[in-house]
Protein 1
Amino acid sequence: MPGKHMNFYILLLLLFVDTAFAESIQMKPFTIDWQENVDSLVNLSFLLDAPAGKDGFILVRNGHLVKPNGERFRIWGVNFTAASCFPSKEDAPVVAEHLARFGINCVRFHFLDSNWSGSLFIDGREDTRALNPQQLDRLDYFVAELKKQGIYTNINLNVGRNYRKGDGVIDYEYLGLAKVINYFDEHVQALHKEYAKQLLTHYNPYTKSEYRHEPAIAVVELVNENSIVEAWFSDRLLGKNTNKRPGTWTDITAWYENQLTRRYNEWLKERLSSTDLKALRNMAGVKEDELIPRLTKNQFTASPKKRFHLEAAFYMELEHNYFQKMYRYLKDELEIQALIVGTSDHNHGKTGYPLLTSSSQMDIVDGHVYWQHPRYLTVPKTRRRTFSIKNTPMVNEPFNSTVIQLSRSAVAGKPYTVSETNHPFPNEFACEGIPILAAYSAFHDWDGIFFYTFEHKDPKEWNAKMPGHFEIRPDPVRMTNLAAGALMFLRGDVRSALTTTPGHTPLSRCTRAFGIHIPRIRILRPDSHHPPLSGTQRE
């Protein structure tokens, strides 16, 4: 008994000492100063081959990105979003050096066409058909400074463009980011081409070349997170939106719904015999002089397979044609030499394979996934905007991990990049995100990762606090992980899988019936030195 009492008192003493010691510790902020770290012990700029593009354009060879000499090229990148794309000439070289020290070798310029922050469009003008020369000059200088450090550029062509009255776009105030109408509205397609020409034929006086002929421009992306097939699955083609300035994922208006339905009926007449068209009318329950309505989400299950497959093929062909039209315009008419991405496989609550049939025809296949992305909410009584976010470790849910979700998008014979991924703040397990992605991206032999986002704001406004869910720049955990991940991914510390097994994606018969390409997924087999994260080898 005396021994037990003694142990009890010793335990109490230890608890008291530990508590007293903890109270004496003064917690201090751990900040990474992007302006004053020139002499930092961490300097991974040796991983970069400066200046970017010195030997020519990045190419595709044997399904991977390579330099002109055939050496493998991998992207370890970050996004710069909206106002952050336009730093002052004093800040641009400092930012570029800061990125190089962390092993960043490519910047994805996102929301260059923003309507809520810094933008290439002229503020106060009645249209979005002219570019702001001051903003262009800032972008030009930043691109040149990045190039000096060995950092390539990825230009996004259509992300946040909100059309204005002078653009001549019907219902412009009701379209938000105007997703999906680009796939069938010829005027919007013409505006996309016009903007691409203005930006990509622009002469950068600091690199002394037009963007289309600049080897430091590695990638050009057509549209961001934009799929008309996904919009169909999500009931965003109903034509019921009557709200001005709607959110990102909004329904189209009645005018566009009518145009899409008419185009669908014209498409059916071109492809079906009179007998088959009559049978389809009977399935839909409409008369000969009536338009065949398009299906809504709640009609999918009860609809005959033939009707469902026909409509799916229609949307898939719209996507395919848009990407091909834009690709040929950029490559043949503008003579762009950078590699082209169509859009990203981004909505992992629904199948991405229909989208991959068209996007995989571009130079690079791309994917987006976040671990526990915040859900944005509005409090009914106060109308105050708030959010909800989970807070659990990804390693406890391997079959739902970012690795698993991103793996579905890789296509055999094509370079694969991830242009957006993150563990959004304030996830307490964020330290797992970048190292796991770096390791398994190398194991899966992917070609690049861009973490979202380094910053949203102009560097003049950067401070030590976390401004939102996605900023990497002020976060000491993610910044230090970026450096470790750069070594792992760029230096080849993790070897790629020894065996790759291709397999066809489980697409419906309608894709074959209309000659739509079916990509082959890449399934990697681990060896004894690379045990798998559960499920990463299965598709």
Protein 2
Amino acid sequence: MLRITQLKLPVEHTQEQLEKKLLRAAHIKENELKTYTVRKRSLDARKKPELYYVYTIDFSTTNEERALRLSKGKLQKAAEKPYHAPAHGTEPLLGKPIVIGSGPAGLFCAYMLAVEGYCPLVIERGAPVRERRGDVEKFWETGVLDTTSNVQFGEGGAGTFSDGKLNTLVKDPVGRNRFVLETFVKFGAPEDILWEQKPHIGTDILINVVEAMRNEIIRLGGEFRFHSKVTDILPEENCVVVNDDEKIKTGAAVFAVGHSARDTFQMLYDRGISMEAKSFAVGVRVEHPQQMIDETAYGRTDRSGLPAAAYKLTEKLDNGRGVYTFCMCPGGYVVNASSEQGYLAVNGMSYHDRAGENANSAVIVTVTKEDYGSDHALAGVHFQRSLEKRAWEEGKGMIPVQRFEDFCAGRMSSGFGTVVPKMKGGYAFGNVRSIFPAELAASLEQGMRGMDKKIRGFAGADVLLSGVESRTSSPVRILRGEAFTGSVPWLYPCGEGAGYAGGITSAAMDGLKVAEAVIRRYTAV
């Protein structure tokens, strides 16, 4: 198999044009081309409105050596190493391995363990994904929150009710990233996530994928228990306690609990599990017309054949803080992502078609231990809660919304301008600025004004801000060593909640890493 890069064609090209370009660039004839696969596709918008797709393609031909010789260095051998699990260990495993949490980290950990014959038990505090969807939609419609089944908790994790973005910056020499994407496709995700530069699935499709993965884990001998919360651990007895009364012995308990499992963090802290506070970021959701973002990105009013445009912006401020956009949702919705009564958090979500009128993104500012004034391992959790409490009060239980002009002035908005909110969940005018300490609020304002120089209108008067975006990542890190175990030798911290990932793909990859650690140590059940 050979690989060719930098095949550039206008975005309006046909498949036939792509094949002809491949043949010319590879110096081969049509009858010499056996197969080809798109490996990567990215958009080149440097000369907008002239837009191009740039391809990397793997192909096979009847005479690879001749093609390599004629290409004069333009072709390379496609030698990608396929991912595989490690050899099984020899230590007997006490009971089944337990995976606590069924977000991407827990789900992929359980999947790999099941494939390798370890028959994992998955314990999830929330509901199965379809039941969970009903609970979430009921909350958005009525404001009645189920604290165990919501945007944060339940099968699929917090990423299920998001844009389903799958890009990651994690280095991947052993092929975990590709395996994650291929697994998603195997269970129903669109095939283009394998080659698009910025792959995404969308909430509507993710629900089906998550359910299909669960069914396969069960077919392979795994077990799922929903509405089951690990409320305690007994370190000396190798036990987890479920729903306050049931003890389950295990030699390996993977804690993939997600970034919002604050009660679990507290329980582990009380049990002496080593953890520390870590830096994270907080901020607001901003909404702009998607058409404005498209025109900036593409330099044209008609984006036929092109996806809803995305952006990624950063600003370094004079006070040393970084302000940046995060979890950008083209054609999406701002959603009420609360998980505790009396506290309010927001997130962004898109369906697969990204067909909504507004683009939304988090604009967030970094916070550190100095902001919450303590070295306590759970100080970041308390800081998040303080912001969420203010957000709940500002919106009287609904999402507080404010025009950017009014945010800068520190006054409540009295009406909408050119941007109308597209939200899942009730909203009300509130003073979003007052949610934050003064320096953080000023940093958000300054950061958005800087971003306006890159996207004209980004800091327009009518741009909508809502808050609070507080669940960008875990505020704690549960410490683990080279064997991936924590301060209790049978406890395996895993994924975003444990502080080792950020986003669907990196969390799934960390789930694989932890599964590998269990496999290397123990024999299969």
Protein 3
Amino acid sequence: MSSLRVLALGGLGEIGKNMTVVEQDGRIVVVDVGLRFPTPEMIGIDLVLPDFSYLREHANEIEAIVITHGHEDHLGALPWVLRELAAKVTPPVYGGPLTMAMARSKLDEHKLRDVHLVDLAPGDEIDLGPFKLELIHMTHSIPDSCAVALSGELGTVLLTGDYKFDQTPVDGEPADVSRLAQLGAEGVLLLCGDSTNADREGFSPSESGVGPHLEEVFARADGRIIVTSFASNIHRVQQVIDAAAALDRKVALIGRSMRKNVGIGSQLGHIELPPGVMVQAREIDDFPDDRIVIISTGSQGEPLSALRRMAYLDHPQVKLHEGDTVVFSATPIPGNERAVNETVDRLYHIGCDVITTRDAPIHASGHGYAEELKLMLNLVKPRYVMPFHGDYKRIKLHGQLAEAVGIDAASIFRAENGMVLEIDKRGARFGTPVQAGMIFVDGVDIGDIADAALRDRRMLSADGIFIVVATISEQSGGSVADPEVIFRGVPFMDEAGELVDEIKDAVEDALESAFAEGVRELGVLSDRLHDRLAALVYERLRRRPMVLPVVVEV
């Protein structure tokens, strides 16, 4: 009996790292390969990817990778996934033209140039093994956003990607509601829907409504204006440029990703740059303050972003000063609030005026609110619903919205990463789960960094480290030199008095005790020293720095 399997390797119970596997007859289509950014306790970690061990194990079964849109939480893991799969297979990658252009730019950075990237227009249909793939145009905060319809023997699986039903989008191309309704009339087997704003009532405001409010804010500013937004929000950048041009201001782009995305968007016709408006970063100081608008990355307070460096007076090209107005045309992603607040506070310290979404309606979410989620459910009339792309709260609320529009509670599947929804002619049920979790990117390497490693990093960052070097005789096992004590990052050492001398005495005592008991193995000696010294340091400092004993035989 033919069976359809749908499993999320990322994106359930969290915001970010979206990755979904749709499988039938031993063939796989992967929808989205996203990442998310580390939380503060992930010290030293640069990026977080889904654990795609399942794809490694079934690499030869992958027909294609389909990307719904160009945001990092849907596209960002592509280079790492393809590099890991390359030993067995390099599947083709499908998506809209802008999405594929962003993918190409990202792959070029990783020197992955032998990947077959295919531009697919909404409405085009192609065969991928047992599936027929079609992209349906949707509206989001980036052009070329699409829902993915995978039709097979049992019916159609519709994965919405990120979407909203914006009736007046900046580019004049609303979501293809008629095609969604047609799919609903034909019969949708399973809807995997975006849950990001399931907790917000009503309808989301239109993106086109942001432009006039930006122009109002700009008109009140006397000095330079620095606008920060997501670099991928090309429609927002267009509205900032339009508002600047209307007030006879020049525009400069700051931040590598901002310049790159605007360049790609301009080449593909998604953004229009009025003649004479754009200037280079090095030309900013050539114009009066009231003639300049700077569009910058850093709306999420990222440590190395352009705006963060400006806030700490560390940017090589833009030196902020009193009288500048900084406009945050974005809201913090959950988890980034602290970094954003720190950036805002530094801007106030410099003397800047700061405008956020609390002060003016200068941002519109790219994700539909509750009424839009209900509209999607009513349009496609799915037999089964599996809420996607949200934390547990939002997935639960999305399920409640599905029940509210008349879908049977038994047909709504609230899942977690790794849970497998199996559908056949008898119905739908959860099957045996697969491995799912996180893979960390630390520098340029990826891997499953053990909890112990992160725990050690947290300990080092909080309480520092003691390194104690003990030198013993290979023949007698006794100490042959004074122990050496090295400490770094340990708080209140100046108040600890004779602690270093006490540590040295404790080392000598522990070695003598071990020698008397006939203990000679270096590993056992190190363990004894660790336990003795850790207890002593905690007793004196009431802190738990990392204690690293090193025993050397001579």
Protein 4
Amino acid sequence: MRAVDALMECLKAEGVEVVFGLPGGANLPTYDAFYDAGIRHILVRHEAGGGHAAEGYAKATGKVGVAMGTSGPGATNLVTPICDAMMDSVPVVFLTGQVRTELLGTDGFQEADTIGITMPIVKHSVLIQHPLELPRAVHEAFHIARTGRPGPVVVDIPTDLSRADIPYEPITDVHLPGYQPTTDGNQKQIRLAAKALANARRPVIYAGGGSIGASGELTELATSDRLPVTCTVMGLGAFPASHPQWLGMLGMHGTRTANYAMDEADLIVAIGARFDDRVTAKLSEFAPHAKFVHIDVDPAEISKNVPAHIPIVGYAKNILPKLTAEYRALEPDPGRLEEWWHRINSWQERYPLSYDDSPDAEIKPQYMIQALYQATEGDAIVCSDVGQHQMWAAQHYHFDKPRRWINSGGLGTMGFGLPAAMGAKVGCPDDTVVCVTGDGSIQMNAQELATCAQNGIDVKVFIMNNGYLGMVRQWQELFWDRRYSQVDTGQFPDFVKLAEAYGATGMRLTDKHTLVDQMKEALETPGTVVADVRVAPEENVFPMIAPGQAARDMVG
């Protein structure tokens, strides 16, 4: 059969249910194979939309997402989602077309060195150099993407090789001698961690995106005693926000309680987190009294930013039950944490998340998120774009379950939200999926509204419209003497008309008194809905750790 037909067989063998992509000259043979393959393909309007949709699908389902693009601009349009997936450890296989082999290196039409361009931002990549390589390369790509620390894999396929005939035999074994991730953790190190936790008087569990797949195990560990838990913006939902041991999110726009607890902790157990700058702030001032247990499947992350006293390499899902068992066996004194919880509770009472509500009908952005939580009854997959609305959603929408909060953390990609919501809805068709976005972010991939309308992907989009690039404006206000340079987006476009032009339902929401009911109406309206929610234009996200400052110096 043709190599591309073998490719389709490989995708089916990997359990691929959907592919997001856009055809072009160099991947035409692959699209011809789709004609008879029986695999669902969703035609996006821009390759970046396809890449982010594959990410949203992967984050919502835990499966490997698949995105496709042609050579040259098709592949370079995928660079941002590839980098985004790398930063947030998202398993996505990117299949790109490439010019004919005899044209490689000649600057042929729509030629780009896709492997060279993406090399720093992939977990693995391969340029197919013989058609017989393709089946095994595809299976290896899926294996690498989903195991160890998940991430993006690029398979670049020259068009002449993709249409060549090959003898195809199903591949059932994938063995990569040079790639053997450590998954179970060292038992001696786990025992040391349990002893450290049993002796700690001011412990904090700090859970990142790597704990999302180990939510039950994390909760079991935390509740084996009264161990306080905080999560990063990527880890929200790994531990229930409604639980009394939850401190809230930590980091630049986290709660004072979470950040103060980290600052005064004597032991921090980091689970699937990488101590990035949005969490540590001023690195030399971060958690000055703490010893660190660091659990991560990627050994390169351990001690990269903060030296780990007890490193444990492996999957959180495998390690945490062993840690819990060792901890319980030590029968630690629960009374040792009384004083610590008294301090934590005093912070919670003194510094709750709050804001000054408007005296009239004006919608404050914080209230918009609270209204959305009320309208959805806290039961929705929330996909966020990047900016102020992202931070307010993280603060005020309370996630009790994993894979219900999907956002771009490490790369902070504007334009991520709508296509990610599209992918999440395709992966979880029975769930309510909402996109929380800003008037700046939505316009970066608004064309995917057409994809939603054409394919019956019922995403509910809520635009927090303040007429600014809000987070940039906030920084210009606070750190640049209110010199507002190029952040005023005006009132363009008319989002209601834009929604209708794309075949969606458009709504405009301007009154806080009717907001919850109107949001419920938007959620109940069939099809894709775009709600333009007009909010207070110059509200700021607080609390905040200013750049270069310590957590104890939070403002707002």
